Amino acid sequence: MSSARGIVAAIVASLVALALSPIEHGHAVPARKVMKARARPTAPEKCEPRKFRIVVDVGHTSESQGATSARNDPEFGFNLHLAKLIGERLKAGGFAATRVLVTEGKARASLLKRVGTANDAHADLFLSVHHDSVPDKMLEEWEFDGSKSFFSDRFGGHSLFVSERNPRFGASLAFARLLGKELKEHGLHYASQYTLPVMGRYRRQLLDKDVGVYRYDGLVVLSQTRSAAVLLEAGSIINRDEEMAMNSPERQELIAAAVAAAMREFCDRR
Question: How far apart are the C-alpha atoms of 185 and 246, rounded to whole Å?
Answer without folding.
Answer: 18
